[in-house]
């Protein structure tokens, strides 16, 4: 029991550290970064996997406690997921900016409801999202 607690604590520290190292990785001065993550989910939604799309391009698969990173030129982008009934989120990217998007999943009856919410960096840090992925150009 004690060994499992130590392993879980170490895994959480490693995941949080790698997430913020990747989120703070260097980017071109004329590009912006988008960090899309999942955190604070119920037992019912942990097994739900979804794809995240930026405009018409797939950003990747977002599993529970996962992170997707993307960089792109300034402009307006629309984020959406592969789940039916989700509400898309429009982001206005400025050069050198970083946008954090919390993907909230909840169950209403037998239906999964997805909400994409832009949050501040401090809120994203509080969520202690999981390990970072590769930076994808959009």
Description:
By secondary structure, the protein is of the alpha+beta class. The protein has one domain (2-137): Immunoglobulin-like (Sandwich). It contains 2 helices and 9 strands; from the N terminus they run αββββββββαβ. It has helices at residues 2-23, 121-127, and strands at residues 32-37, 50-54, 57-62, 67-72, 75-81, 89-93, 98-108, 111-119, 135-137. It has a 5-stranded mixed beta sheet with strand order 8-7-1-4-9. The protein has a 4-stranded antiparallel beta sheet with strand order 3-2-5-6, with no helix packed on it. It is globular. The model is unreliable at 1-23 (pLDDT under 50).
Sum this structure up briefly.
The protein has 138 residues and is α+β, with helices and mostly antiparallel strands.
Number of structural domains? 1
Number of helices: 2
Task: Briefly note the CATH topology name.
Answer: Immunoglobulin-like
User: Roughly what percent helix?
Assistant: 10-25%
Question: End-to-end span in angstroms?
Answer: 44 Å
| Low-confidence sequence ranges | 1-23
Across the major sheet, the strand order is 8-7-1-4-9
Compute the number of strand runs: 9
Strand count, sense and closure of the main sheet? Answer: 5 strands, mixed
Summed over residues and divided by their number, the pLDDT gives a mean of 77
Oligomer: single chain
CATH class bucket: Mainly Beta
- CATH architecture grouping: Sandwich
